[in-house]
């Protein structure tokens, strides 16, 4: 097994807390549990973010209940990339 695999800075709790803080500062409501974030905007759920730092992947499951969800998720992707430029971000 190759142990020099790119690992995300999201392996550190401080980085995960920083992401939650950035999301809140940018107007999102966040419930964080470990590597998972339930994100809402206004009165509706927007997305679920699943961090997989040992695979250098961030999964974002988008709920289409908000008209501007695409634009809001793009903003979230940008915030993720400010903390981790190398991880692959997959939205679905």
Describe this protein with a few key phrases.
single chain, 92 residues, alpha+beta, 5-stranded mixed sheet, 2 helices, 5 strands, 30% helix, 33% strand
Mean pLDDT across every amino acid position:
93
Strand order of the largest sheet: 1-2-3-4-5
Q: Estimate the strand proportion.
A: 25-35%
Terminus-to-terminus distance = 30 Å
What does this structure look like?
The protein has two helices and five strands, in the order H-E-E-E-E-H-E. It is of the alpha+beta class. It has a five-stranded mixed sheet, covered by helices on one side. Helix 1 packs antiparallel against helix 2 (69-83). The model has no long low-confidence stretch (mean pLDDT 93). It is globular, with a radius of gyration of 13 Å. The termini are far apart. The chain has one domain.
